[in-house]
Amino acid sequence: MNTGNGNVDHGRRQVLAWGAAMAGVALAPGVTLFELAQARPPSEPASAKVRWGMLVDVNRCATDCDACVVACDRENGLPETKTATSAQWIRKVELKDLRGGPSKTAPVMCQHCAHPPCVDVCPTGASFKRADGIVLVDRHTCIGCRYCMMACPYQARSFVHEPVTDQKPEVPRGKGCVESCTLCVHRIDRDQIPACVEACAATGHKAILFGDLNDPGSEIAQAIATLRTRALRPDLRLDPGVVYHGL
Amino acid sequence: MRAGGGFGADTAARVLCRVLGLAVACAFAGVAPATAADSTASRVPKPTIAITTPGKCVEDREVILRDHMDLLKHQRVLTVHEGIRTKAHSLENCVACHASRETGRVTGSKDAFCESCHRYAAVRLDCFECHADRPATGVAANMPSPAGTAPR
Amino acid sequence: MRTHSTPADNRRYWALVAVLVLIATVGLGAAHTMEEQGHIVTGMNNRIVWGLPHVFAIFLIVAASGVLNVASIGSVFGKAPYKMRAPLSGLLCIALLAGGLSVLMLDLGRPERVVVAATHYNFTSVFAWNVFLYSGMFAIVAVYLWTLMEKRMQVHSGRLGLAAFIWRLLLTTGTGAIFAFLVARQAYGSALLPLLFIVMSFAWGFAVFVIVQSALNALCGRTLPPELLRRMRNLLGLFVASVLYLCVVLHLTSVYFAHQVPFERFILVDGGIYPALLWWGYVGAGSVLPLLLVFHPRLGSARALLLASLLTIAGAFALLYVFIVGGQAWPLEIFPGYQASSSFADGQIASYVPRLPEWLLGIGGVAIAALIVVVGLRVLPFAPEADVPALPAAATGGD
Question: Which CA distances in Å does C372 have to A107, C67, C288, C379?
Fold first, then answer.
């Protein structure tokens, strides 16, 4: 039954992709429908034409600011106290330059890899990558084996160690499953930017830029084209959707 | 380990759910609207189905009684994996409409919308271990009539 | 064993069963607590995501495949004294595998969803392959046992023995690959790991077999023939030495090939409990001492072999603890060139102290395995017949 479901979905996605491709061809050569997923109606699936990503400008990230972390906790109903067993979808990492440069801080969250190791190792397929590049956990099929946490190079995942109450209606979460940054997928699906990006912008630092990496006209794509950026652990060639400038 | 542990695709459990669902449907058929005076014949108190929000449900009553879990599961795959967020069959939408006026929740007491029925049918209700059992603040007030939003 | 049971034997048997049931039940109770209250009752956290239960589970699973070697030596390589021990070897394999998988399953965050693991497969996951390898192992060994114990099927036992031997090599490769494919971590991600796991399974499985056989011999007042004792000592020594050798190679490749000097310094020198467990527990008590006991010309007794086996297993637990927990305690290097720190313990050694539920769950898994062995020996003739050089084919079939 489940595989049947998957096939149907896959088939439909393919048809949609063809449809989109044909629409793109019909418009004009070289012009593609990047806006297709921008204001996506709720009945349409996420499109593979889009790849959501973030650019973190470490030079703009204020060392004494944790607005992104606070905003994430609030948006997703995460505990404010930070312990070894609490969920931390985004964290500020303090970086002391070993060669004597100035100290920096950088937010680290799920890097939404194009080739996510967590998805590769998940035995049930609960860890998955959505068509638009967002790496998520389907909590309905997560059995809580934590293999994905072993595989993640960024320590981006948390295991829910205790029963949870008072969840946010849009962010269901509960004991015994692994979770991580969803890129605020519930906000993206209604055309809003992630909470951390919004909060960072509100402080005036504007250290996190969010957008469609596939759209050459997007602010983020142009910034990446001009700035020197790097992925974390580039040696692993995971092609993360989050890149850093100023490291 | 736990009785009727929700998510398995095992057919035995599904058949059992069907039978129970039918039983519940039959029970309701005789209970007409909300707070029916208990028929003395039954030893088990009938569930209280208090629907406070006016308007029509997203599906017919019989469909909801028998198939609400199938509808929810179908919707959850679409939402989680594809980002399709149509309202009609989403759990959030159910909760928004059916949360109790007094407690604001669909579980947590024997008269709560989901819990009353699930207690009666003795079917484990584990959606709300993870999902909020109350509407987002402000959602219930401006709920549009959901009847028109069903797909197809 | 069952052929000559006296009332006193019966009492002892049921007392043993009762004790094992009790320990297993306490283990299940611990798992229930972990499920109800969450993993907060354990010492595990977001940095040490696999802890003591995994040490127990992986030991049992690795030993399960290794214990089958006794049967393989008999069926595949045609050595008669081992062939006589093949049924016991198969029973132990099934028992240890069941015990290990119980621990692994009961430690899940959502153990009630184990049916999901059986219905949803992600074929890029080594874990998902292992689900097949484990269930296949049960099936193959069950059929193999049938061919060993049913006279009409005995013509097939050689082929089944070979299949079981190949399958168990695959299974241990799969277990090693769980870690070998973790490229992001300094401690794992080495192509040597599947090989190391196979050699570890030889040593640990054989040690388990020796212990069970010694217990059976003690119960029945038997002794091993000197020739077999000598062979078994040599075999255990060879296996233990091979594990030690591969461990040395693993750490050398880690230093020279992968340049993990800081991590190796942590595990081998200044990592506190981890180097202590590695040197004193694994190398000293778990390798050198068994090798001395086994190869010393004046320590040739069955008791020395038993003690060497017990020490090998103690060393196995020490090695697995260092490998699994120590490997995670070392922080991921996300920002090379920087000293990182955060609320999530970036750049710091993670701390982990196993708590009671974890111990109880792990020990419960061992009890489950032991229970299967004890009951199995009672209901079917798994135990090897007397080694007195009489006719080994005398009494097997019957009912």
Answer: 51, 15, 32, 11
Which of C125, C108, C130 lies closest to C49, judged by CA?
Answer: C108
Nearest to C373 by CA among C219, C229, C213, C153: C213
Task: Please report, to the nearest 10 degrees, the dihedral formed by the alpha carbons of residues A46, A48, A50, A54 taken in order.
Answer: 90
Contacts of B2 in chain C (CB under 8 A): 112
Tell which residue, C245, C273, C251, C281, has the closest CA to residue C263.
Answer: C251
Considering the domain C16-379 in this protein, what is its CATH number? 1.20.1630.10
What are the sequence ranges of the domains in chain A?
50-245
Q: What is the mean pLDDT of residues C294-303?
A: 86
B15 and chain A: CB distance < 8 Å anywhere? no
Smallest CA–CA distance, residue C317 to chain A, in Å, is: 20
Pairing of strands A90-97, A229-230: unpaired
A168-182, B49-63, C347-361: range with lowest mean pLDDT: B49-63
Is the pLDDT at A6 greater than 90, yes or no? no
Mean local confidence (pLDDT), A37-57: 89
Task: Provide the pLDDT for residue B40.
Answer: 54
How big is chain C, counted in residues? Answer: 399
pLDDT value of residue B138:
52
| Packing angle, helices A67-76 and A195-202, rounded to 10 | 140
Provide the ipTM. Answer: 0.90
pLDDT average, residue stretch A202-206:
96
Stretch 371-390 of chain C: residues touching chain A, C-beta under 8 Å:
none
Helices C192-220 and C52-67, packing angle to 10 deg: 70
CB B66 within 8 A of CB B22: yes
Percentage of the residues of chain C whose pLDDT score is greater than 90: 71
Q: Of C37, C110, C340, which has the smallest distance from its Cβ to A93's Cβ?
A: C340
Q: Which two tokens stand for residue A61?
A: 């990230």
| Beta-bridge mates of residue A209 | A55
Phi and psi of C46, rounded to 5°? -75, -10
C-beta atoms of B131 and A172 within 8 A? yes
Amino acid letter for position C172:
T
Strands of A52-57's sheet in order across: A208-212, A52-57, A242-245, A229-230
pLDDT value of residue C4: 54
| Mean pLDDT in residue range B56-73 | 92
Number of helical (H) and strand (E) elements in chain A, helices listed first: 7, 10
3-state DSSP assignment of residue A210: strand
Residue A9 to residue B84, Cβ atoms within 8 A: no
Q: Is A30 exposed, middle or buried, given 0-12, 13-18 or 19+ CB atoms closer than 10 A?
A: exposed
- Residue A105 has φ and ψ, to the nearest 5°, of -130, 155
Residues 14-53 of A with CB under 8 A from C: none
Q: What is the mean pLDDT of residues C237-263?
A: 92
- Return the H-helix or E-strand segment holding B103: none
Looking at the predicted structure, is the pLDDT value of residue A35 above 70?
A: no
Residue type present at position A228? R
Tracing tokens 């190391």 back to the chain, one arrives at C196
**Interchain contact A87–B (C-beta under 8 A):** no
Classify domain A50-245 at the CATH class level.
alpha beta
- Residue where the block lists tokens 């061992």: C366
- Which one of C111, C112, C115 has the shortest CB-CB distance to B10? C115
